[in-house]
Specification:
Length: 379
């Protein structure tokens, strides 16, 4: 009994099928810290690089709005046109930064989990509104990790903020001695780069959070040995799937076999029910069966042989014996050496005669078949 219980412990890594099904259900590893870091960092850097352009544009809008002629103020059409121009100019000023933020929002999820859209994630679940499930989540290991993460963020960002203020403290104090415009420009530079440094500090939190989220997600999807067995039974163990696999294997073998017929040296036929294609490379080896079939398969072999000018020879006893006692890519049985040798010699003599390089064979070969290799015509 204890052994049965231990087998139900979820100690096995999730199978590819389990991971795929979880993704279909909208479950994948996600790191909010990574997304937040991407958006904050891209936003801060965008302000640094696009800030001068945005400030100049907004300054132009403000100057345009503050230089309205007195008579235009009392003209609604002029004021509406004026407001439209101002809004369009403001949108043009902010467009590069908004585009950068949009890119950051899309790139964040790519860091872990990738893009995922699943309608199942939007379906209502009773566990989400169940108070007991909520209490369980509140006092879970994940909640404890989130608490430590919150403390870590305060500690990291606070420490970086302290050193940043200390670094820029002297420069900030010097601003009161400068004119207004240079002081404002330098103050903005200090603020922007301080923002970049503070946003970059969240990278440390993301570096810790990403491995944890991957581990937590994988642990959540762990399986017991029984679940793995059931999954195998439900997929590859189903009779219809096994039948489909066998069918695909047969079709692949059939295509491979038919592809070897054009290179055969001879096709021995029954003449209609059987066809066996042989190839002989010479040397010390025996001829090899490269294709064989009955009925429709035999007809297909004969058609391919005729199309590629492969010699065919009617020899029903030999065709039946070769089909019965051989497998594809195997050498012919030793007892059929003499009969096949006679066929190959006869085909060679016919070829020589057709080329005008030898006499016509006087008669067909005897092709003796040993008794233990003979196959009755009705088998």
């Amino acid at each position: 009994m204890a052994e049965e219980d231990s087998s139900q412990e979820k100690t096995e890594e999730p199978t590819p099928r389990r991971l795929e099904k979880a993704k279909e259900d909208g479950q994948t590893a996600r790191s909010k810290e990574l997304n937040t870091t991407a958006i904050l960092l891209f936003g801060a850097l965008g302000l640094v690089f696009f800030g001068p352009f945005m400030a100049e544009q907004i300054f132009s809008v403000a100057r345009h709005n503050l230089s309205v002629q007195r008579q235009a103020i009392f003209d609604p059409a002029t004021m509406f046109a004026h407001m439209g121009d101002s809004m369009w100019a403001a949108m043009e000023a902010l467009a590069p930064w908004f585009a950068l933020m949009l890119v950051a929002a899309f790139l964040g999820p790519l860091g872990i989990g990738g893009w995922l859209f699943s309608t199942k994630a939007f379906m209502p679940k009773a566990s989400r509104i169940n108070p007991l499930s909520g209490l369980k989540r509140m006092f879970s290991m994940n909640s404890l990790v989130e608490l430590f993460k919150a403390w870590g963020k305060v500690l990291v960002v606070g420490t970086v903020a302290y050193f940043t203020i200390e670094y820029y403290f002297a420069d900030s104090m010097e601003l009161q001695k400068k004119d207004v415009r240079p002081a404002i420009a330098e103050a903005l530079q200090i603020i922007l780069w301080s923002a970049v440094i503070l946003c970059a500090s969240t990278i440390l939190i993301a570096i810790v959070d990403v491995p944890w989220q991957i581990y937590s997600h994988t642990k959540k999807l762990r399986m017991s040995m029984q679940e793995i067995k059931d999954e195998f039974k439900d997929t590859e163990g189903k009779p219809e799937i096994k039948s489909k696999i066998r069918q695909l294997q047969r079709e692949a073998a059939q295509r491979r076999m038919m592809g070897a017929v054009p290179d055969a040296d001879v096709v021995i036929t029954n003449p209609t029910h059987y066809a066996v294609a042989l190839s002989y490379a010479g040397g010390g080896g025996a001829p090899v069966v490269v294709a064989k079939g009955v009925d429709n398969a035999a007809m297909k072999i004969r058609e391919i042989a005729k199309e590629h000018n492969v010699p065919q020879m009617e020899a029903p006893p030999l065709a039946r014996a070769l089909y019965k006692h051989t497998r594809i890519d195997d050498e012919i049985p030793e007892g059929l050496y003499v009969a096949v040798a006679q066929v190959l010699a006869y085909i060679f003599q016919l070829d020589q005669f057709a080329k005008g390089q030898g006499p016509k064979p006087e008669r067909r070969p005897d092709m003796p078949i040993p008794a233990d290799l003979r196959v009755d015509a009705d088998k």
